[in-house]
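ok, trying the design again with the full structure, not the truncated one.
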């Protein structure tokens, strides 16, 4: 703790210096206010100054400039006590004043009170700064959460986590995975759009999407993308799951049952029923992000994806068609029927296709 003693009386300076140094403080002295002003840059903690000193700088002027230029607390000393003197000192910015002659204990007590006040002031300043930092951090976190929530309206939470985990390197993280892909699409949608208003088209489509997406998410899958009046969902990526085939099977049944129920409800209300066809297939894919740093999309790529899409294209309203690998992996777990070998668009050889009817349990 650095203390500057300012007094034109050498005896006062010597006594104060001795007492304060014995108490463990670092003490320096100045014989007048002018010299003390020149030393304010030395960053004093406390300035102990006489109120009345010869020259242009008395105790009050020193106090004013010390408070304006730094954070030092000022204790004034006076041999002429009075209410007006006290008011003048405090108004000038002094922490307290001592009446000469004062005892050693009085001096040390005043200095200690001044130190306590400084410590409290510093603590309050630190607390204020910390509160400001916390408020800024909270604001940033709240903004990030709003961004995350908004982002989550366009992609699934799992993809959000994937993007946040890999940051700018997402385009470099393609992985080979075995997954099950589900495609679902509204049947006769072009016919439907020609019969009703655009507002009704959007309302009806969103009702169907809600059924399908709820079914996918309830079974742990993720919505990968909307494709016009259809959706693509993934099971086993980006979050791996050993039972991705069973998850996709249950999601497909849920989606079919929910949309069939919705179609009946719409028919009862005099609206056109909207039904879907579903295709699911299992196989090896490359999963990751495709695009550029400015625009990218998480998806899966490979023959297994194409086959799932082709199965959905040929599925009748309310029908779920499975590829051969999906059917094999679900043997004993589902009730199904063999449709036979179908020639699918873009597939070189006729493909054995299975219709999923229900779960075996």
């Amino acid at each position: 703790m650095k203390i500057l003693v300012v007094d034109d009386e050498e005896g006062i300076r010597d006594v104060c210096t001795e007492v304060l140094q014995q108490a463990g403080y670092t003490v320096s002295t100045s014989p007048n206010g002018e010299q003390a002003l020149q030393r304010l840059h030395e960053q004093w903690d406390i300035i102990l100054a006489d109120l009345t000193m010869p020259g242009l700088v008395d105790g009050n002027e020193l106090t004013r400039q010390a408070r304006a230029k730094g954070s030092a607390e000022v204790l004034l000393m006076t041999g002429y006590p009075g209410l007006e003197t006290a008011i003048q000192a405090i108004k000038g910015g002094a922490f307290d004043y001592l009446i000469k002659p004062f005892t050693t204990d009085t001096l040390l007590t005043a200095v200690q009170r001044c130190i306590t006040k400084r410590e409290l002031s510093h603590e309050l300043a630190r607390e204020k700064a910390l509160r400001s930092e916390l408020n800024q951090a909270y604001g940033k976190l709240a903004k990030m959460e709003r961004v995350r929530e908004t982002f989550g309206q366009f992609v699934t939470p799992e993809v959000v986590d994937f993007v946040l985990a890999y940051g700018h390197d997402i385009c470099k993280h393609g992985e080979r995975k075995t997954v099950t892909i589900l495609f679902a699409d509204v049947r006769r949608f072009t016919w439907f759009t020609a019969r009703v208003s655009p507002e009704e088209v959007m309302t009806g489509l969103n009702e169907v999407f809600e059924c399908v997406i709820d079914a996918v998410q309830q079974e742990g899958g993720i919505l990968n993308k909307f494709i016009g009046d259809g959706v693509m969902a993934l099971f086993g990526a980006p979050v791996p799951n050993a039972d991705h085939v069973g998850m996709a099977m249950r999601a497909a049944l849920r989606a079919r049952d929910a949309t069939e129920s919705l179609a009946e409800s719409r028919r009862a209300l005099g609206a056109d029923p909207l039904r879907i066809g579903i295709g699911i297939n299992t196989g090896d894919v490359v999963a990751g992000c495709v695009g550029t740093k400015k625009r990218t999309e998480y998806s899966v790529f490979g023959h297994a994806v194409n086959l799932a899409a082709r199965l959905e294209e040929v599925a009748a309203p309310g029908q779920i068609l499975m590829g051969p690998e999906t059917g094999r992996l679900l043997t004993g777990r589902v009730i199904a029927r063999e449709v036979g070998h179908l020639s699918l668009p873009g597939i070189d050889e006729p493909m054995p296709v299975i219709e999923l009817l229900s779960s075996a349990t």
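Keeping the full-length input from now on. Residues 161-359 form a domain with the Alpha-Beta Plaits fold (CATH 3.30.70.1230).
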